[in-house]
Task: structure prediction
Amino acid sequence: ILNVEQSPQSLHVQEGDSTNFTCSFPSSNFYALHWYRWETAKSPEALFVMTLNGDEKKKGRISATLNTKEGYSYLYIKGSQPEDSATYLCGGAQKLVFGQGTRLTINP
Amino acid sequence: ETGVTQTPRHLVMGMTNKKSLKCEQHLGHNAMYWYKQSAKKPLELMFVYNFKEQTENNSVPSRFSPECPNSSHLFLHLHTLQPEDSALYLCASSQASFQGMNTGELFFGEGSRLTVL
Result:
């Protein structure tokens, strides 16, 4: 089982500021890493699936990087907006085990 | 609308009841999953089905019994549950995974909120 850890567990950011958070995973037997956004009362929604060391992916103001050798991925949000408030989950493709999530709150 | 529909959205049951959760996907996927979200815990994988065959049982107690009659439907049959089984149960689907590995994104339903009295 892939042990996935996310930090911080919660984060409050002022609207307009940029932020980032971390997903850590064992670097051995890496296969793929998933990022999801989970808004309250909705279903988790895929942001990125990353497979290659050095991958960088971007969707609008959100981007992610992947380092499989050291076992971490960063998610960046540029110019945070209130609609970015959500829990961000990362998960390893081995049996799709997820971290506990980072709960992001954007203060207007 | 993710293409994955779960019913019921809310369920309250006693410890001696038998109930079922249903999941349906219209995305043409061949892998389906049950996850459990308990308060303040990570999303926990319960079962995985690929092409209707169970390929993963994450040491789930037998009071949870999954059924996958076809690639579009997944059930979770519940029997003699405990109050600690109260949680949000999420269904997801994806392109088929191979030996537990999956690079295709998951599409989740909105979940079934279960309360066991």
The two ends of chain A are 39 Å apart (CA to CA). The interface with chain B takes residues 4, 31-32, 34, 36, 41-46, 49, 51, 89, 91, 93-101 of chain A (CB under 8 Å). The mean pLDDT of chain A is 92.
